[in-house]
Amino acid sequence: xxxxxxxxxxxxxxxxxxxGAKNACLALMPATLLSEEPLTLTNAPRLSxxxxxxxxxxxxxxxxxxxxxxxxLATSCHGEINPVADYDxxxxxxxxxxxxxxxxxxxxxxxxxxxxxxxxxxxxMDIHIDALAALGAxxxxxxxxxxxxxxxxxxxxxxxxxxxxxxxxENFLMAAVLAKGTSVLKNAARExxxxxxARCLRAMGAQIExxxxxxxxxxxxxxxHGATHPVVTDxxxxxTYMLAPAICGxxxxxxxxxxxxxxxxxxxxxxxxxxxxxxARGLKVKRKNGRIRAVxxxxxxxxxxxxxxxxxxxALLCTAEGTSILEERIFExxxxxxxxxxxxxxxxxxxxxxxxxxxxxRLKGARxxxxxxxxxxxxxxxxxxxxxxxxxxxxxxxxRGYERVEEKLRAVGAQIERVKGE
Length: 422
Ligand code: EPU
Prior knowledge:
About 30% of the residues lie in helices and about 25% in strands. By secondary structure, the protein is of the alpha/beta class.
């Protein structure tokens, strides 16, 4: 297995291009199941999770061709569709559950494996099931698979989710676009990835209003047509690279970044002593002056502070002046980076969903292990600021969500390399 070797070095300077959003692309790709005509996605990120979704869609009978080195995905689904999403693929990636809504809408039935738990939490599917049941689907669990049936087709309905789940909002949207009549989703998730999916579906002929608010209205149509859609900028990759100059000093411009994607995050950066300036091409980030100040962070659904930036923010706060309190409210087990950061000299106490980070002067390089995607990149950020060498092992997690991370960081002066494992 590969590992990443990082040497703590001085200030960074230059530009980092930000890719299209993994989590938007993973929801956009299954939308191809909704139409017989081609859907082309531009600005796609080159990631192993995207390859897993490609494999899943191919197993269902769709075609996905990666063009321009993977930056463009040409998809289509005009032949016979297999309604079964197999455990062997679904268990690798939870976002596989996003084929449930579109399969149901197109075929009237679907058989999708339950994903099982993952490192950051149990992540059940009850909100998805309730949302699709509201549209008339009958869903049963048999031998680890959800069997969903909507004989006679899905019917528009008003439904309020108990929690604003991102994935359940996406499944509901993709099911309701082809349902008979009007659907209203209350307490819908408001993430930019939802807005991106709604825009793409609209380009395919869907009638949707209210995306980006907590109430989305969908008027079902008989069929969707083809479209070309650019994937929205990855706000989590953006926030991650914004933290690099915050942690190491220097000045980095993140190309393609926009404040509205990371507003609550920028408020916390400001309080910690980091300045963010909007430029014609993106966001320029540097330290205001002196040491980082401690800040308290609570993760929440968008527009709150994203859980997917909590681990990286913790890496920054490890060397802040004072004590920061980080409260994780989205996932029940998302502090696994804390004991790894502690191996580098960080002082962190974790009690349930709350982590207290007592700032130290300097972190020290160490061998650490990545436990999930965002944890792995937080350890790289910490390594960039630490004295000496840090080796992050199990970096396959990293390749799920960050394209060419070594190349991007090296371009701004970081000392980072991949060490090939057997
Ligand atoms: N939940 C339930 N029941 C459900 C669905 C969700 O209890 O039926 C719970 C989850 O267990 C979790 C919370 O609700 O505690 C939030 O889950 P949500 O459904 O909103 O998240 P998701 O759709 O599974 C997406 C991203 C995650 C990101 C979360 C929250 C994708 C492919 N994944 O997951 O991204 O953390 O939203 O913003 O869009 C990552 O990229 O590292 C990542 C984990």
